[in-house]
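Please complete every field before forwarding. Incomplete forms are returned to the sender.

SECTION A: IDENTIFIERS
Entry label: holo-510
Bound molecule: zinc ion
Molecule representation: SMILES string

SECTION B: INPUTS
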Amino acid sequence: MSEQSKSDIARREEATLAFWDKHNIFEKSIKKLSPKGEFIVYEGPPTANGHPSLHHLEARAFKDAIPRYKTMRGYHVRRRAGWDTHGLPVELEIEKELKFSGKKDIERYGIAAFNKKCRESVLKYIDEWQKFTKRIGYWVDQSKAYFTYDATYMESVWSILKYINHDGRLYKDYKIVPWCTRCGTVLSSHELAQGYADVKDLTVTVGFKVVGEKNTSFLAWTTTPWTLPANVALVVGSDITYVTIEKKDKDTSSPTRFILAKERLQSVLGENSKYTIIKEQLGSELVGMEYEPIYPFMRELATTTEESKFKKAFKVYSAPFVTTEEGTGIVHTAVMYGQDDFELGTKVGLPKMHIVAPDGLFLTGTGFLTGRFVKDEGLAVDIIKDLAKKNALFSKEKYEHTYPFCWRCKTPLIYYARDSWYIRMQDLRGEMVAQNKHVHWEPEHIREGRFGDWIAGAKDWAISRERYWGTPLPVWENTDNSERITIGSIEELKQRMRRSGNTYLIMRHM
Ligand SMILES: [Zn+2]
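SECTION C: PREDICTED COMPLEX
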């Protein structure tokens, strides 16, 4: 911009900035007498992957005004700049630059080389940010800025994690994620939103035989027939009315009975279907009933730990997510392949185990399914044929719905349980709510409002990502998970290496 075209305000600002610079005004404000002591500011570091924009200006204006005010009131206010340099957005940018289509490409390229690229890309933006920060008159000490990729910074995260583990708060569990079987990666909600498309899938209504009652089956409907071999429970709504109907087929001598939601009778059986209602009851009365599993694979593949959980499996449970808007009002549950399913499984203690590998192929030991891809259309057809053979198929139908695809490679995504590390938070809710009452908030309504709501409903915190450009988790476990070590510092890691003669003794890095 030429000097002539600048507004008076811009010229005045630049003159002021030059004066501050020349006379070290910021440094002097830190060194001046501070009779009231320290006022601590933690600079929440901006993500340096991207250009600074207007909303950053707004946030920085607030972060500047308060320290200046406190300085004038007689406090010593140190402000150390920081940069949030890690994370998926950085990786995605480099993947785009190198024309990669996922984690496999990164591993072929080499993780160290890939991370080096990430690091360089972040530094590129930091220059731009520093100019921006200076120009908007934001006082922050950039000479001692911290970077989240610095080993010393990551070490501080290690030391916190070691403490958290020592406190018994670090644990590993599964987490249901939108998963691309081809790229071998989880998709963020932002990425997920980019890849929806309308598709026609085969859906089935399946009969699960009630234990101890002849010729009676629960009817459940699913849009993902591939999850049926992983079924471990059926779910009803406790306040929904269910009916047992009797239907006589031409080709069978004995009548067949089906249980489903009363409201769904017409849609499931069809307008002209003939049947007799022989029983009507609430969902809550069905809870606890047992049914025969259709497929034996879950039980056959179970480890000793999971085996004991099977006494809870193949029963009817109730949950609030069940509705009578579609299907039969009875929901088939495969704990590892759906969010609602997983939450119910966690709550009641159902077995958590995979019959499908992360590449989307059925594991060995799953009979005719072994080695086949879950989203292969022929697979749904084969499962339907098999259900018919087992006399468990009630009906099938093509169903048009919106389904998520990987925005990178167009593979249909699946909901899939992946290992994840968590910090246990839920039992701290009460204490956090109590402490929050003593916090001064501006504006005040946030205390009980947005922030208050958030801590009152705080969930356990999933901290791990299966990515490369981030702080490595300092957790080692032996192969049967019976021993775990968390390393709190680089020195501690060195000592352990020395003690084990520089060989990796226990090591499966998570
Ligand atoms: Zn993909």
